[in-house]
Amino acid sequence: MGEEGTEGTIHLLCLAASSGVPLFCRSSRGGAPARQQLPFSVIGSLNGVHMFGQNLEVQLSSSRTEDTTVVWKSFHDSITLIVLSSEEGTSELRLERLLQMVFGAMVLLVGLEELTNIRNVERLKKELRASYRLIDSFLGDSELIGDLTQCVDCVVPPEGSLLQEALSGFAEAAGTAFISLVVSGRVVAATESWWRLGMPEAVLLPWLVGSLPPQAARDYPVYLPHGSPTVPHRLLTLTLLPDLELCLLCGPQPPLSQLDAQLLERWWQPLLEPLRGCLPLGTRALPAGFPLHTDILGLLLLHLELKRCLFTVEPSRDKEPSPEHRRRLLRSFYTLVTATHFPPEPGQPEEKAEEAIHRAQAQLLPTLEEVLGRHLRRLEELVDGHWEFQGAAASGSPADTQC
């Protein structure tokens, strides 16, 4: 199986669809940001072949060379995104979802109106710089997986009911229904209204908070790509502990000054120990002592209806392979299974893809159960034979122990 994220380079190009003018180019090598840029002639050729196909009413979506995969995607006939990856084992599915996340990040921080009605290219270039940090986090080796699964990265807090109760009370006191508690980009707890946020903002907002440099408080203007792509909202963040932040999504009210230290202490000071217990969840996702088999090296759990996922490679950290390698293996396996068994039908709207997944599950699960059952029975036979051999060896019978 190929391993996404192994040493290789990713180039992301953003162009104005009508003129072909490059708006930005971001690159990563080996999972880290890189300054390497593609020559303008290469950028022009990649965009030119895509436009040539469009003029002939041919949709060019992807192409492969011996060592590089290229994916094109246009948004609202205004923005063209192109990604090139030379990473070993990279998949078109992963690159397609990467482009969806990148455009979502652009809408989140700039707004759809600026992207679909480009009046001043140079001004748009400057405005898009605000999205670079978030976009670069998609290109690197992130500990999150929501960019691929399109589900919100979550954790299992040790005192979940207490945190949920405090969150609901704080939301009422603060005057907003959209509040979440986030640790390192993963949602610890959230109000019902926050969970009702659409995609991709439900994934993008925690990811954005996790990608920003540490700050005690923020008042950040954001657009909601699904819910409000043209009218900005305010994303307020308050740091309770390092990497643990309260996130509030609201309109003009309340002002950040209203969320003073006294209000925070009233609701969160009594829960200081449960809050501290959330800090290790930024990497583990599961609380210490969670009953997990010692042979499990990584876990990806998805709830497709709720659009939530739990992703961890921290169990048995001292074993091989490394956590980074485990992340790549799990991402590759998810991509392989999704692309092979749950592919969207040609021309199928994205909002109907979940129905296709359920149909594919109904066909695939019986086969998986049969295969797994056969292997488990074989494993039981091997284990029984092993113990019979050990028992014979312990009895000291030469006939039974002779090789």
From TrEMBL:
<keyword id="KW-0963">Cytoplasm</keyword>
<dbReference type="InterPro" id="IPR026069">
    <property type="entry name" value="Fuzzy"/>
</dbReference>
<feature type="domain" description="FUZ/MON1/HPS1 first Longin">
    <location>
        <begin position="11"/>
        <end position="137"/>
    </location>
</feature>
<dbReference type="GO" id="GO:0005856">
    <property type="term" value="C:cytoskeleton"/>
</dbReference>
<dbReference type="GO" id="GO:0016192">
    <property type="term" value="P:vesicle-mediated transport"/>
</dbReference>
<dbReference type="Pfam" id="PF19038">
    <property type="entry name" value="Fuz_longin_3"/>
</dbReference>
<dbReference type="InterPro" id="IPR043972">
    <property type="entry name" value="FUZ/MON1/HPS1_longin_1"/>
</dbReference>
<comment type="similarity">
    <text>Belongs to the fuzzy family.</text>
</comment>
<dbReference type="InterPro" id="IPR043971">
    <property type="entry name" value="FUZ/MON1/HPS1_longin_2"/>
</dbReference>
<dbReference type="InterPro" id="IPR043970">
    <property type="entry name" value="FUZ/MON1/HPS1_longin_3"/>
</dbReference>
<dbReference type="Pfam" id="PF19037">
    <property type="entry name" value="Fuz_longin_2"/>
</dbReference>
<feature type="domain" description="FUZ/MON1/HPS1 third Longin">
    <location>
        <begin position="296"/>
        <end position="351"/>
    </location>
</feature>
<keyword id="KW-0206">Cytoskeleton</keyword>
<dbReference type="Pfam" id="PF19036">
    <property type="entry name" value="Fuz_longin_1"/>
</dbReference>
<feature type="domain" description="FUZ/MON1/HPS1 second Longin">
    <location>
        <begin position="175"/>
        <end position="269"/>
    </location>
</feature>
<protein>
    <submittedName>
        <fullName>Fuzzy planar cell polarity protein</fullName>
    </submittedName>
</protein>
